[in-house]
Each structure stands twice: as C-alpha cells, then as structure tokens.
Batch of 2 targets.
Target 1
Amino acid sequence: MGQQSNLKVVIIGGGFGGLSAARALDKASVEITLIDRRNFHLFQPLLYQVATGGLSPADISFPLRAIFKKQKNIKIVLGEVIDIDTWKGEVVLPTFSLSYDILIISAGAQYHYFGNNSWKKYAPGLKSIEDATFIRSQILRAFERSEFETDPHKQAALLSFLIIGGGPTGVELAGAIAELARETLLNDFRNINPLDARIIIIESQDRILPPYPPELSIKAAKSLQRLGVEIMTNSIVTHVTNQSVTVKSDKNEFTIPASTMLWAAGVKATGIGELLSKTITVETDKAGRIIVQPDCSIPGADNIFIIGDLAHFKDKNENVLPGLAPVAMQQGRYVGKLIKKRIKNRRTIKFQYKDKGNLTVIGRSSAVAFRGKIQLWGFTAWLLWVILHLLFLVGFENRLLVCIQWAFNYFTRNRSARLITGEKRL
Amino acid sequence: MGQQSNLKVVIIGGGFGGLSAARALDKASVEITLIDRRNFHLFQPLLYQVATGGLSPADISFPLRAIFKKQKNIKIVLGEVIDIDTWKGEVVLPTFSLSYDILIISAGAQYHYFGNNSWKKYAPGLKSIEDATFIRSQILRAFERSEFETDPHKQAALLSFLIIGGGPTGVELAGAIAELARETLLNDFRNINPLDARIIIIESQDRILPPYPPELSIKAAKSLQRLGVEIMTNSIVTHVTNQSVTVKSDKNEFTIPASTMLWAAGVKATGIGELLSKTITVETDKAGRIIVQPDCSIPGADNIFIIGDLAHFKDKNENVLPGLAPVAMQQGRYVGKLIKKRIKNRRTIKFQYKDKGNLTVIGRSSAVAFRGKIQLWGFTAWLLWVILHLLFLVGFENRLLVCIQWAFNYFTRNRSARLITGEKRL
C-alpha cells in the first residue's frame, strides 16, 4: 500500500499520546503502524467509574480499528513489542518485525510498589480494564461476604476499604466507593448497614492532592469527609498482607484489618526504556522515565520520540511535566506535526506545554480544580468536569451513551454495572 | 426479621424461574432466601449479543439486590449450593446451612457434549457472561491474527467460524457473527477482507431450527445465506481439535480447519439432581432433567419444586415442555401463587403452560416466529422480536439504555463493545 518512498512511522501504544500522534499524521505521506497490546483505546480518566460499577468497560474503551477506519495511511497491529533494534531500525514482535524510519513510543506507566512487589497481589492498582473489573468484583464481594459474616471483627474488616495514596486517583476511588456504599447499596442488604463501611485514604504527605493549592486540598478533604471517607495524612504504609495494612504515623505504628486494599501511590514508566538501551544510550530518571530533548526525541536519535507518561520532559522553568492526559495529547500532536514539517523541510519548533489545569472529581456534584491562580470547587468544578469529559469524548461514538448512563446514575444514584465477574466467582 | 411463624422458602437460582417465583411471593407471609452463584440476573436470550460485541455484559445483567431492593421478605445469598439434605430440610453452602420449609430449585441447564467433554475447551458454549466475553475475544482475536498471517491456509482457518448446532442459539450466533464480519468490520482491516470470513452452521438434522415449521426453517436458511452463512445439514460432528472439526455427512467424512468453534448443540440439566438423590428418590430423563408432577413438585416431596430448564414437565398432550424462558417464568409464577394458596388453605390447580410461541432472530431486520399456526418472518418477525424483548426488559432499569444502544448499532452498523479482554490478551 502507498508509494515505496513514504516514510515508515511506527507508533508504540494507543493511549492518549499515540492516538494524538497518529491523528496528527492523517493525510501525511507516511505509512503509519500503530502497535498496541489491546484492540482498544482506553479512556483512563474514567477507569475508576468501571471499578465502582458506574460504567461498563465498553463505555470507556474505543476499538482502535473503529477510530482509524477512515484514516487510510495507518495499519493497526495487535501485539506486544518484545525488542527494539535501533541499529536496524526495527521493532520486534513475537512473530514478525516492523522496520521504521521514525519511531514514536507512547507506552505509558504502570503502578510502582517502591520495591515491595509482593504487595501488588493484595493491593492492586488501577491501570487496565481487567484491573477495574477485578477491583469491582473485590469491592462487591466484600459487601456480599460481610452480609453473612457472624464474627464482628471479620465483618468490620470486610467493610473496610483502604486506599493507599491520596493523589487524584486515590481521591476519585475513595469518593466513588463511598457513594457506592452510602447511596447505591443503601437498601440492598438485610443484615449489614452499608453506612458502617469504612473508606480510608492513607497519604504519606501532610495533605491529600499534594500537587493542588493547599486551600483546595482542604476543600477536597471536607467533601470526602462529608461522604464518610476517613483521611490519614503523614502516614506511611510499611507492610501489606492479604488482610491488613500496617501504617506508620507520627512514630506510631499500627495495623488496620481490611479485605480490600487499593494501590494509588505512585507510578513508574513501562520497561520499554530497557529495550532501547540495548542498542542506544538512554538516560532515565528514578521513575524509569526516559529523558528527552525539547523536541521530545532521544538525545542522539532524532528519529525516536518518547511522549506521555514514559517521557521525562523538562519545561522552560525546569519543571518535569506530570503524567497527565493533556501532556501526552499535546506531545503526540506536536510530534505528528513535527514529522509533517520535516517531510516538507520546514523549520520546527520546541515542544511547549500549554497548562490546561488540574481537575479531580470527588463525587456527585463535587470536584476541585485549578489553573494557574484560578480555583474552582464544589458544584462549579464538578460541572466543569462533566463538560470537559464529555467534550473529550467527542469524536468517540459512545459519548452520548456515556452521557445518558451518567444522567441515569446521577438521578437514580444507581450503578447498574455492579457485576461480580471473572474466573473466581464467589 | 418477620414473625417466627413464617414459612421459610429457599429458592436456588436467580434465573427466569427463580426470579418469577420470588416476585410472585412479594408481600406473602414467607421468609424467602434466594441463592445464586452470581450477584446478578442474566437475561440469557441476549447473551449472543455480548458474544459478538453488540452489547456490554451490564446491559443484560441486573444486580439481584437491586431487583429486590423494595421486597422486604427476601434475602439474597451469593453462594454455591454444595448439598441438599431433604431429611433435615437444609440447603448446605460452603460456610453455613439454610433450613427450608419449601424449596424451589431453578438451577438451569449447561451445555452437553454427549460424552465428549474434551471438546469443551475447543468449542465453548454460551451460558455465562464469562463464556460470552471469552467467545467475543476469541472471534475478534481471530480477525486480528488473520490480518498478519502470511500462510493462506492458516489465514483461511483463522477466518473460519464453525457453529455446531443449528437450533435458535446457533442461528442467532451465526447471524450475529456474519453481521460483525460483513458490516461492522468491513473497513477495519488493511490486509484481509472480512467478507472472506466463512461462517458455517453444522446441523445433525435435515434442516436448521428443527422445532420450527419446515417453511420457516427454509426462510431462516435463506436469510442466513444472504448474510453469507453456509449451512451443512444432516452433518454429524465426529471429532473436535484445537484447529479443526471433523464432520460426517452422507457417509463422507471430512475435516474443516478453523480457529473458532462454538458449541450450540444441546444442553443438559445442572447436577443438582444428584444432590437431591442422596436423600430422596428422584427420577431424571436422559438430559438429566428431574421428572416433576403436574404441580411442579417432586413425587413424594410436595414441598420441593423444580422449575425451568431443570424440570421434565409433561403437558396434557404428553409433550415435554422445552427449555425456554417463558416456561420457566410461568412455572415460577405458578409455584409462587401455589404457595400463597397453600398458606391460605385454598384449592390449588395444576400448572398449565400457555404457549407464547417461538422466535429466533437472524440479524438486522430479519427473524422467524410462529405461534400455533401463525407464522411470521423477515422484518415483521424482527419488529416483534424487538418489541417483545423491550417489553421483557421492562421492570429492569437498563431497558432504555439497551434500547438506545440497539438503535445506535442498528443505524451505524457498529458494535462498540468489541473488546478483547481477559487474562490472555493477545
């Protein structure tokens, strides 16, 4: 397909970064191959809604082939990259290799247990659809088991939900679990009272949402407390077992029994940096992110671009850009345009991030947001969140359905996707 | 809860039968316990839509606790029945037992491989949400793999979908897979042409839909052939491997290579009859169904009722009632009312099935239906199918959303839930 002379662009990862890069290259004289392990783009900011039964996986997942149905210069490959050979210019998959002229890597991040990988099986993180449906089953199963538990200690543990990490993900999860327990499940049980459920955020710093202005952290904490969420700040998790978390707080160490522990305490880059470093010198930071140049390429390899959560990009104020969807999207669009300019031998400029602000939703009618010095909270911030997310979803067929599902959930306080599924059924 | 004098009614199974029985007992002076292995009621007639990416699991699954939120005389237990002691009047679960005065068993059916259980892993049946999402992944993965398969024989096998059994389930699956390939995926690939996909129904009798009038079987076959489905009648499957099915047809035996084989050839009752037979004499038929009396109770135990797919019930013309949702629902409602009458010492009558007719959908705007001598086909039958299913779904919150999703799918020919999920991701 296409002329032989076309540049071969290989994109690894169909997340926000990869998708934006591919779209920016629409109608360019290039042959794009987009590789992903999944056959769909995942709208990660709403994954916590799947984990708490508010939305179905398909509501926030968009088949990559459907997205690019009409873009003729792109091929989609469902597969896992097992090696990258920068000398040959090849990306290696289990059964074949793909040669590239330009490589864009947007492979994202995964949860980071800071050396305690054994905690992973007790306190899963929320990155994939499978994570979300597993956590959903775990939360719902805890309520089901508590209904017929006669030992009050065990019952209390079953109704304790610990969220490790008080950043945006932890706050959103805690708010959604609290609403699930206090509103959706309120009249569902006969022996237990879902209001007895304890939802606890454990945060190592002195306030939740550390990247936010302190006033907003306080507002968010108050909103959460109104939903019944307990917040433990200055608290470090020192041990995790299948039935408890040990916390060190102000020199005291104590153990909280719980059956559901969720990890939202930090991410690290996926291991693709190691593949690159076999044939090229790459520098990574502590979180495994690859240090890139002002045009998002790797020093010494101007045909390899790293974007999104995988990239360590310093802006003009020497701040490293955070792992947020808008950063990945802007970088993807930038690299796509840069390639077009290079083809036409036009002058290229450095990448510059336009800060779109930060926004964390706490629950029905409650959120916090800031952009520079502008701060929003409560219903106003929540309304902004709804509008922005619906706008983001524009371009994806499902946006109307998601909107209707939300309206349903909002007015009925119901969460119809609260299914316990998967292999282990009880 | 309730007065001590209340009758204890235990219902095993939250399918159509169990649900109807529990609902019929609303406001009766009984203490109901409904036991199911799942926390939701599954609307099985639409399961093939999940298996082919048209609907999400939550669209056809309804949390049992939500259904019975307002019915105060019922407790829901998520658990598996491991024993039944009819002497003590107890149903045994792994961690506790429940005593009953009246037991209603509506535990359904499972796929029957007629002694060839090793075929199960190559040709899965469609009974649970997990079956449906597994089959969905398998079908979509076959297309993905064929896109990059260079060996034409292997590619042809990847694009061959064999459906073993030409009853209603087999016909609905074949029609939906054909539409997925020929409409939804039409422009999704660059190397393969989804029109090359072969969808083959293998039926042992001389026509598909054997319980239907012959004229409708012919009409259904023509509709399927218009969708590109091949139909092999008088064909018996003699062997199934992970890459082929061997078929015996008119004394010829031949092997069809395929990567996707689906089983829709027959069901048998779940094993609960064996639990009962430890303490009581139960008679079962060849399919494992328990032979019941005209009031749906077991001979010799008028406090144990068997309803739905698990029951072998002979109507006044000595015909055994088929394993259909309307049968289970009518039996459930009947038994619920019978219990109410017994409490009030009123006279009870025998169960009588009101035949609501048969309806099988083939695809967009195509179905076949009959009731007695009335026959419908094509768009008329399809419209009836849509209306009936929407009416059935009345009472469940999601009906509007399912309706909207269908409208989307109908007009856009899209299937937004075509996700490859689960542990084995590639």
Target 2
Amino acid sequence: MQPEDVLPRLRELGFAEDHAELLADHFLDSEQRGKRGHGLARVDWLATLPDLDPTARPAKTAEYAGFEQWDGRGALGYLTLGAICSSLEEKPPWPARVIVARDCFPTGALGYWVRWLAEAGLLALLTATSPPRLPPPNGGPPLVGTTPLAIGIPDENGAVVVDVSMGKVTYGDVLAGLAKPEELVAFGGDQSHKAFALALGLQALVESCVVGGFGAFLVVVAPETGSETVERARDLGIRLPGDR
Amino acid sequence: MQPEDVLPRLRELGFAEDHAELLADHFLDSEQRGKRGHGLARVDWLATLPDLDPTARPAKTAEYAGFEQWDGRGALGYLTLGAICSSLEEKPPWPARVIVARDCFPTGALGYWVRWLAEAGLLALLTATSPPRLPPPNGGPPLVGTTPLAIGIPDENGAVVVDVSMGKVTYGDVLAGLAKPEELVAFGGDQSHKAFALALGLQALVESCVVGGFGAFLVVVAPETGSETVERARDLGIRLPGDR
C-alpha cells in the first residue's frame, strides 16, 4: 500500500468522500509518526472485516449538561471519534464535558484524536476498549485490551500529545509483523502489575459507561491556564511526547 | 506512632474533630493496606510542615453544569479531597461531573478517595500534582511528580480500586525509609518513557486546570451498567486491584 493509493482504495471500499478523507488522514498521519501498527497496514485490513458497513454513520444519541453519549451505529470507531472531535471543535464545551461512545471500534491511534482537540484549544483525556489481549501478570487468559490512555494539552509551541498503550507492544505491531503475539503483555517488566491495573481500571470505566460492545471515554476541558511543566521542559530543551 | 495515638496527636496539632477523624481514617487505612508511605509516618511529618494551618477549611469556589472548582484555602489536600467526596456522596452527580481543585496538597493515597466514591456508587478517575521527582528517561533534572492515576469502579462484590503511581517507588516510600531517593524514576525499565509520558500528561492536564500551586483533577460518572471484565475476572478467581 503506497500513500497515494490510500484514498482511492477507501473510496473503492464504498466510503463516502468525507469518511474516506478522514480515514486516509488518520492512517497516513499514523504511518508518518512511526505508529505503523495504526498506519497503512490497516487499509487492506479494513476489507477483511466481516461486518464492515462503509455506509454507516455515527450519531449523538443523548446530551445533558456536561455530558454526551454517542453511538457508532455500525460505523468504524475512527469515524465515531472523528464525528465527536468535529462536533467539539465546532462548538467547544465550557468548562468541561464527558463524552462516552458505544459501538466504537476500532479507534486507531488515540493520540490522533486528542491532538485534533488540543489543536482546537481543548484539554482532552481519551481511552477506549478493544479485545482482551493482556493476561494478568500472575498468568491466566488474556483479560484486558492494550487500552491506551491519550492526553492532549494545547500549547502555543505545538500540542503535547501523550498516547500510551498498556501493552509492551501493540496489537497493531503484531498485525504489522513488527512484534510477536507472545510479546503482548502489560509493559513494565517486574512492575507490569501497574500497567495491567491501569488497563483494567480504564477498561472497566469504559465498560461501565456503555452497554455492550467496545466503547470510548473522553473528557474535554477548556484550559484555565498553561502548564508550567510544559513551559519548563521547553526551556530545558527536553523533547515532549508528541513532538516531531 | 501507634494506631491509637493517631487521633489524639491530630487533635493536639489543632485539627477540629471532623478533620482529625478524616485524616486519622486516611492514615490508618493506608497503613492497613500496606501503603505505608501514606500511613502513620505521615502524622509526625505533618507537624514538620512550615505552613501547616490546622484551622483552614477548603471551599467550593465555582459551580457550572457538569463542573466544579474547589480551593484548598490553605487546608491540607487530604481535607479538600475529603470535602469533595463528602459533597459528591451527599448529592451524587448525574450523568457526570469534572471537578478541579487548586491549592490541594498533599493528597495521600488517591485510591482512598476513589474507593469512597465507588462505594457511594460513582465511577471515579482522579489524579493530582506533587513536587517534581522523576527525571526524563534520557536524563536531566526531575521534571514531573510521581503523579498517580486512581480509578474506582463500583461493584457489588467490593469496589475495584486502581491506584498507580508513575514512579518505580513513591516519595512516601522514600520518606518512610523503604526506598532510596535514586529509585525515584518512572517505572517500566526499558519502557519507562511510557510511565514518564503518562506522568507528564496527567501533570500538564492538572496544571492547565488550576492557576498556581498543586492541584487535583477528578471525573465522576454515574455508571450505566456493570463491567464485564470485572465480572469475568471474579468468575475466573483473579485478584483485582483494591481486593484485600
């Protein structure tokens, strides 16, 4: 798959132009940032999904003060998160909003979505569920997904984008042939119980907010001020997560 | 310090009865759960704080739909988080609320506060800032605190309580003589950049929500349903974070 083939291939799969462009941007951006597991390898993978419905569109299904609920309605999770980010960018919440999405899978590189929000001036914290891949540190069957936590911080020198999978490797890396399936354990070596606990807590949090299937949990906040730590790191010339 | 001496000592330091009881419960609970760095060693440590004001009381300073802002007003962070939990337990938010607290330090074992909320039926995600202790993985001065992330999940068989510090050891452990200062690095060994990134992202998130000083960031959500993963783990007999 070459970069220039991504958009035509997505159109060929039956996606409408807005969806094809969003998907292409996510895959190309991921590939370019070295997140190859979320990159071009995923385009052909889409075609293998048994229940791919390229015409499905996500929708906001409930809205209360400080809270929104979305439903993928059969669309790819990428498209549900894209619709949420687009809606938040158009009407930025103040001071804060919690957004949950059901039927939201796959969600790709979570950093992509929080970067979008951070560049629109919003603090964002995002996690999402996925199939169980990580066994408990003391052994047993896979119990939790790699359950990444992504945090986006607006900054005038470029958004700070943290995107940490709780796995030693990602499933995307396995899919792209960059890692072995047996490397899919919680990261941290002799402290892998910490990453496993984070994955479990985040996964249980999402599951408790959405009935059935995979989901996403997002918090967005209008910043009150800048981060002293980010400023200090820039002064010290320290490379921050999300920097090119 | 013996358990029976904690409450009298706190009264002696000048705390009102409600505050002394809350502090004693936090310290005794932490000690009992093996979190000795947040336990009895902290009682005498309180007396050494140069600006300890035992009469200070935290207050809610702003409230909007889905959002609250609190200010420690010179009180210990434990007391600010206690006042927040007590207020949320009394009037549980629905569907969700983001709460930020300024002048909120020290915050103790974050698991204690999310357990309180989970036992009151609320999903909770909590983080807090503290002095820089962890250097970047590639070297440099300490840039971020141990910045724990705590997640509480209500469950009929006992709340699931995740409380993960991003440090290989906690500062409390160093204070209690259980670890050496040079062990205060991000956890994860050759993947410590992941825990460091999480600490940085969480710290920048809190800092961006509160002007000046240390702060806390809390999200509470009324659960929509139970967690399948927690249920599955219980069925498999897997010990979950927070289990005794």
